[in-house]
Design goal:
Strand 3 and strand 4 form a beta hairpin. The chain is elongated and about 70 Å long. It is an alpha+beta fold and 257 residues long. The chain has a seven-stranded mixed beta sheet with strand order 2-4-3-1-5-6-7, with helices on both faces. It is 55% helix and 14% strand. About 6% of the residues have low confidence. It contains ten helices and seven strands.
């Protein structure tokens, strides 16, 4: 029996393929790849039983399991679903559209510079002395859950304070410092660690933590390596390594506007 196959069918197949690919990537990043494979096997079996073999009893049982399973998956993977929806809304084109229709201010470059320059100068000094540091700058997505894991500071941003926090004998130097609303909110915070196998071997735990938080939010994470003194920035699951002070200032000015 022949059936018509038109342009809408091609678009339908392409969209489903893209959706499955994106879900695959999302599951792989969250270490739930085996769950995704198991779900796909179950869906194939369900279609085979109910649509191809037309087994009514087994098909109806599997129909009920699918109905309940969707709710169970939403509960189990609520963080991943939230991340998916957030990434969709935080897409660069969406942000451009928001700026176009919204009332986002653009004349605050000088005010932003007062926030960025102490961070850049502190990173430069710590880089020269090979003092390890991890600074996370919050953007649109709140990091209250991360702030809660550390010691609250809620202070103005200053170069001296940043360097004192990451001084080798400081009790807070091992964790991350969170910058939010142009203030240092907390220090000694615990970040999620990325399990990406493509990270260069010479990069340490701070770099993995910076990449991990950049995968789960829209923040900008800055790392100063204790071993090499190199400055690295993690944005949107991407690492930019061996940065100069000028390049760091340029990146922060662009990303935090």
């Amino acid at each position: 029996m022949f059936f018509e196959f038109g342009i809408k069918d091609i678009i339908d197949i392409v969209l489903v393929a893209l959706m499955l690919y994106y879900i695959y990537r999302l599951m792989k990043e969250s270490r739930s790849l085996n769950v995704f494979i198991g779900i796909m096997i179950f869906v194939v079996l369900w279609l085979l039983v109910s649509q191809v073999l037309e087994m009514r009893l087994l098909g109806s049982i599997m129909d009920k399991l699918v109905s309940v399973g969707v709710i169970a998956l939403i509960i189990l993977f609520q963080d991943d679903i939230r991340k998916f929806l957030y990434n969709l809304g935080a897409h660069e084109r969406m942000r451009t559209l928001t700026r176009f229709f919204g009332k986002e201010k653009s004349g605050n470059r000088e005010e932003l510079k007062k926030v960025i320059m102490p961070i850049v100068m502190a990173c430069l000094n710590m880089s020269k002395r090979k003092v390890g540091a991890l600074i996370v700058m919050e953007r649109k997505m709140p990091l209250d859950d991360v702030v809660a894991t550390g010691e609250r500071i809620d202070s103005n941003i200053s170069q001296q304070l940043i360097e004192n926090i990451f001084f080798k004998n400081s009790p807070l130097h091992d964790g991350a410092m969170i910058v939010s609303n142009k203030r240092i909110k907390a220090a000694g915070c615990i970040l999620p660690v990325s399990h990406n196998l493509d990270i260069p071997k010479e990069l340490g735990l701070r770099h993995r933590a910076a990449l991990g938080i950049s995968q789960e939010s829209d923040c900008v994470a800055i790392v100063v390596s204790e071993e090499t003194g190199g400055i690295t920035v993690a944005i949107k699951s991407d690492l930019q390594i061996r940065l100069t002070a000028e390049k760091l200032e340029s990146i922060l000015t662009k990303e935090m506007m």
